[in-house]
Write a structure and sequence with these properties.
The complex is a heterodimer. Chain A contains nine helices and twelve strands. Chain A is of the alpha+beta class. Classes of the chains: A alpha+beta, B alpha+beta. Chains A and B meet through α4, β10 and α9 of A and α4 and β3 of B.
């Protein structure tokens, strides 16, 4: 009888011990996993960010909760109210882009408008648009293209310019390369990245044939007064160190019906944007009336970014 | 008779149908969607309306270099042309078409369209030129003269923004 009682007590003690041990282990693991830059966030915020569901599996209420937490985090970090939108894709819309190579003068106005609109890191420098300079007759000689050209005035005689950003492929190789499904193609055709799911392995950068993805090697350097506070969860919200980012066709603007920042910045009107499913859109006009081509078409990526030469402006190159 | 009908179909109706099919007209954008024209040069210094000086001056059709006024206007657009190809000699506050029809300065694109019909069509279709605003709704169409100085319409070279950092320059 006595033996039995002692055994019971022992068992109980063991149970308590195991529970205490588990509790301690969990707490210890949590503190070691706590990233240093978010150490001042509350424990519940950390817990939620660690177990955040995939964006496409979240209900609207869950998305709202995540956005509220992120807005709190950003406000603490940048001392500025930053609004994060979660607008879904519009039905019946597939975004497409056109770029008139015979008009582009290589002034890089679009590059800096994009940096400003999409909160890219200023130092270290991250730029989503790269403007390549080709000699006449050397289109597609990529090994000879130069993106560091720096003349006093543009356009230079004998050269033409090709801005390259994400081509928003219909068959995006980067999406297939991602091991955590942190990047995917939205119903309106935009390829997006969830910066909270990205683990920074850079497989997508290796997979992208256009060099359109960029990695945050260091903590993004951007002053809080430079931050554009109108953001989208899948677009221009501030990024973290160690995540990949890319052009999103200004998802925060285009899903509200606005043109992208680069379209509005281009001083020569070389950039066209619209809905590929709308036969009256300007991008469809370009596709039907101009000699359009897509970059590295042979790779079967089906880009939704169409380059074209407008023969009416071809005379510029004769000079 | 049958041969005649076939000949008529082949040589008249078929080319006509092609001609009609090719004629696809694009309507003018809504006037409120067209961006306001830029101010005239020196408009703030009282050089507008034009009639305040010109109403009392005789009309001089002679092609010459302007020395007393408007020296900044050097016509590099249509060599051999003169002011009254586009400006209205009878009402200086307006423009005119080749037909003699008067056009206000706010609709100067109609003057450009006389020669640049294809570009005008593409502007109306939404391709030539620049628009800002909404891709699926209200937008502002830049007018010809918002980008091109009509007396010398070719774009001038500009200074480019700085080049990206070379990897070797990153510290």
């Amino acid at each position: 009888m006595k033996d039995k009682d002692e055994k019971k007590i022992e068992k109980r003690e063991l149970k308590i011990n195991r529970r205490a041990l588990l509790k301690g282990a969990l707490a210890g693991a949590a503190t070691t996993m706590l990233p240093l830059n978010r150490a001042d966030a509350s424990f519940s915020d950390f817990w939620e960010s660690f177990f955040q569901k995939h964006f496409r599996e979240m209900s609207d209420a869950e998305k709202k909760k995540v956005v509220e937490r992120l807005e709190r985090e950003y406000e603490q970090k940048y001392k500025k109210a930053i609004k994060i939108g979660i607008e879904p894709a519009m039905p019946g819309v597939l975004f497409g882009y056109g770029l008139d190579l015979s008009r582009c003068i290589g002034c890089r106005t679009c590059v800096y408008a994009c940096v400003k609109e999409n909160n890219q890191s200023r130092d270290p420098q991250v730029q989503w648009i790269q403007v390549l300079r080709f000699k006449h007759g050397e289109l597609m000689h990529w090994e000879k293209a130069d993106k560091y050209y720096d003349p006093k005035l543009v356009p230079e005689p004998g050269y033409f310019y090709m801005p390259v950003a994400c081509q928003q492929c219909e068959n995006p190789p980067c999406v297939r390369a991602c091991p955590t499904q942190a990047t995917w193609k939205e119903p309106d055709g935009i390829v997006v990245v969830d910066y909270n799911w990205c683990i920074g392995c850079r497989y997508c950068m290796a997979a992208c044939p256009y060099g359109a993805r960029h990695f945050n090697w260091a903590e993004p350097g951007i002053k809080s007064e430079d931050i554009n506070p109108n953001t989208h969860y899948l677009g221009n919200r501030p990024r973290y160190k160690g995540v990949v980012e890319k052009c999103t066709f200004c998802v925060q603007r285009t899903r509200k019906g606005r043109y992208t920042a680069c379209v509005e910045a281009c001083p020569v009107g070389a950039r066209k944007f619209g809905n590929l499913l709308d036969p009256k859109s300007e991008i469809r006009y370009a596709m039907e009336h101009k000699r359009t081509f897509r970059l590295k078409d042979e790779l079967n990526t089906h880009p939704k970014f169409f380059y074209f030469f407008d023969f009416e402006a071809g005379e510029r190159f004769t000079g | 008779m049958g041969k005649k009908i076939i000949a008529v179909i082949l040589f008249v109706l078929v080319p006509l149908s092609f001609a009609f099919a090719a004629q696809q007209d694009y309507p003018l954008p809504n006037p409120k969607d067209i961006m306001a024209r830029p101010p005239f040069p020196k408009q703030d210094q009282g050089l507008w309306p034009c009639s305040q000086c010109h109403a009392a001056m005789p009309v001089n059709y002679k092609i010459r270099k302007l020395t007393e006024m408007h020296q900044d206007v050097v016509l590099k657009h249509m060599p051999g042309g003169w002011c009254f190809d586009c400006h209205n000699p009878t009402n200086r506050d307006t423009l005119k078409l080749i037909t003699g029809q008067t056009v206000s300065f706010d609709q100067s694109y109609l003057v450009c369209a006389q020669c640049h019909g294809f570009i005008f069509k593409e502007w109306k279709a939404g391709l030539h030129g620049k628009r800002t605003g909404m891709w699926n709704g209200e937008k502002k169409y830049f007018q010809c003269i918002n980008c091109h100085w009509p007396h010398d319409p070719k774009f001038k070279s500009i200074k480019p923004f700085p080049a990206p950092l070379r990897p070797s320059d990153i510290k």
